[in-house]
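Input.
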Amino acid sequence: MKKTLLIIILLLPIIVYAEEDKIEVKLSNCVDATSSRFLLNNEELKVKFIGIETDEYIIDNKNDEISGKTVDEYVCNLLKNANKITIEYEPNISKQDKYGRDNVWVFVDDELLESHLVSIGYAKVAYLYDDYKYSDELLEKEKEAKENKRGLWQKDEKKDEEVIEEPKEEKKKDIFSIIGDFFAGLFEKIGNFFSGIVEEITNEKE
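Output.
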């Protein structure tokens, strides 16, 4: 009986940790749109948000123009104004990246931050090398953002249209025209030079 009780006591921290997947933290420093530093039991954790990459500037959904605000600022404001921040480790990825940052899912007031950023078009889904816990959710949110042309997906579509407007054949024609004009001008100058020499020789003989 005593041995059984001792085993339960020893395993209790592991059982509790397994049940509490999300760990509440406090913001220490917002680094950028995909990484921050949090405080856990008075120790600072350097973390990297899983599954996303972001553009630098926010594209306004109303007029398709850069608003001047950065995604970094947007994310930092969310974290600074949050009533509660929790992190969750992903079992199918190494705990830390090559820079020593913990790979985590971040929840701001119980909403998955990565999913929120993808949903509004401020981030793209990236670096999903396995079947992660929230992979399907991120991919679904990205599909919706693309279909509704939110945020950065407006900018990408605009770039594609600009490429289509100027076919490659026209570009080739322009290059050949430039080369042709160059040689035509060169031959004209050479012809004028020799004509001048012939004219001088003729004048001397007269």
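Confidence is low (pLDDT under 50) at residues 4-19, 158-168.
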